[in-house]
Amino acid sequence: xxxxxxxxxxxxxxxxxxxxxxxxxxxxxxxxxxxxxxxxxxxxxxxxxxxxxxxxxxxxxxxxxxxxxxxxxxxxxxxxxxxxxxxxxxxxxxxxxxxxxxxxxxxxxxxxxxxxxxxxxxxxxxxxxxxxxxxxxxxxxxxxxxxxxxxxxxxxxxxxxxxxxxxxxxxxxxxxxxxxxxxxxxxxxxxxxxxxxxxxxxxxxxxxxxxxxxxxxxxxxxxxxxxxxxxxxxxxxxx
Length: 239
What we know:
Blueprint: H1 3-29, E1 39-40, E2 49-57, H2 62-71, E3 77-80, H3 82-87, H4 89-97, E4 101-104, H5 117-135, E5 141-142, H6 153-160, E6 163-165, E7 169-170, H7 178-188, E8 194-198, H8 210-225, E9 229-231, H9 233-236
Parallel strand pairs: 1-6, 2-3, 2-8, 2-9, 3-4, 5-6, 7-8
Helix pairs in contact: 2-8, 5-6, 7-8
């Protein structure tokens, strides 16, 4: 084999490996990917509705968010971590009593790649049981931490009776200022969109979510000016 041919083979191998890595990355974290587990990333555009979602709670800051949502007559889906809900059961119950939807975000917020089905089952199932014991109803929706899905997750979702949910746009509100958050989400706010924010910071106690609160306070009136109804994930999945 000539040196030119060897070089061509190595280039081809590199391109193939790169393509495989790119595909795996999309399969694990791509919002529309269905390889490892079925999930939705937007709802029906037939109605002027968008879904507001909050991950990583409940936290000590969640009551302020609930007050804000109530003031704007908006509903949301809260994807809660079991460990946080166990620490703050009264806040979890307040979410439910305010008419918001509760989803499952695992017990301890691990990345699920390279995780066994048994571990995934424990993380999701334990949270299902805790939410049921506090609110009287188990979640029907599940959002994987970091949007990461892996082998076996689809079967676990089916076994535990939860539907996977990704997002149309993510706020990155753990690092962006309020103005950037609201601009980012407003741009993506078309009928059927699922917007992802955070009312917690993984398992941190007493997180500062001021940028999130300020962004939501700015965003909600702007969405309502567009005649968009701000609601839960289940509501926008209705046809």
